[in-house]
Amino acid sequence: MINIIKAVLLSGLIALSGCAEKPDKTLNIIANSWIGYSPLFYAKEKGWLDEHDIRLSSVVSLGESLHIYQSAKLDAFAGTQYEYQTMYRKDPSVIPILLLDRSNGGDMIMGNRSLDAIKSENGPINVYLEINSINYPVFNDFIHQHKLEGKTFNYINSDQIKLQSDATNRTEPTLVVTYTPYNHELEKQGFQTLASTADSLNLLVLDGIFTTESRYHAHKDQMLALKTLINHAIQALHDDPKEYYEKVKPYLENSRFEDFQSSLSTIEWLNKGVSPALQQRLDDANFPTRDLL
User: Fold this and answer.
1) What 3-state class would DSSP assign to 58?
2) Are 43 and 232 in contact (CB under 8 A)?
3) Bridge partners (DSSP) listed for residue 126
4) Global confidence as pTM
5) What are the sequence ranges of the domains in the chain?
6) Helix or strand or coil: residue 130?
7) Least confident range of 38-42, 116-120, 165-169, 244-248
8) CB-neighbour burial class of residue 133 (10 A; exposed 0-12, middle 13-18, buried 19+)
9) Do 80 and 31 meet the contact criterion of CB atoms below 8 Å apart?
10) E strand map for 130-285
11) Which terminus of the chain is more exposed, N or C, with fewer CB under 10 A?
12) What would the pLDDT profile of 154-166 be if each residue is shown by its tens digit?
């Protein structure tokens, strides 16, 4: 089902990018399948986005999301600080406008061997990941935290759907850099979590919505409305998790309600603001917050 949606989406976006101009009033946003972006999916399914002329597109991987944002000339993208930094190097007018969540176990390294076995391995180790995404710095943090700099890694670039089948067919030592909800299927195939943003990983992983200064000013009212809709969606999640899940599950690959509830415990919502301690970490990382709505 996800692949069918994806094919239709890509065709539409290609057509959009081929137009001389897209409608001035529509706010076009893209996001990938991540539990922290589910308030966007909920708002879409409830029809709330249509009321404000906001169009949301969704894809599987972070890298694909960023590529389409650029090629289709969309107005905003959901991503982590890594995607923000990638775009900022290309266009210094890119700014964060909304913070959605902080990963607290939602990003992880999984393996078909124990961590001790990986540390003892003398041969090459396969690593499946979305290499042009936050997956790459997450894995570098894993290497650093567990002193694996002397190991030989065979990096295999793959989106989260494809790596689930490819990685689980491997019999040799194999690691996967992934995020919820994709970890649940890997667990069923015998992979275990070796490290996550809830324990041994030190990397701060934030999710937000990013745009350019010019698009921010052109769509400010819609972006303010989006902030309110996200707050409403998260409140709906707290009020009736099952109803919320039924709305967003088409966007979360192979996610059962039980897996969905488990995934929620791996993120911290930031829609109501950040703590002083987190603000200090943002300042230390030179992450700008002055334009946040």
Assistant:
1) strand
2) yes
3) 154, 174
4) 0.84
5) 2-17+24-102+205-284, 107-196
6) coil
7) 165-169
8) buried
9) no
10) 153-157, 174-179, 192-196, 206-212, 267-269
11) N
12) 999 988 888 888 8
Q: Are 32 and 65 a contacting pair, CB within 8 Å?
A: yes
**Residue whose pair of structure tokens reads 């897996």 in the numeric block:** 259
User: Using CA atoms in the order 160, 115, 147, 169, what is the torsion angle rounded to 10 degrees?
Assistant: -40
Q: Give the Cα separation of 126 and 272 in Å (integer).
A: 40
Structure tokens at 279: 């603000």
Domain range 2-17+24-102+205-284, CATH class: alpha beta
Could you give phi then psi for residue 261, rounded to 5 degrees? -65, -40
CATH code of domain 107-196: 3.40.190.10
Residue type, 112: N
Please report, for residues 184, 196, 252, the alpha-carbon distance to residue 261 in angstroms, rounded to integers and kept in the order given: 12, 18, 12
SS3 at position 244: helix
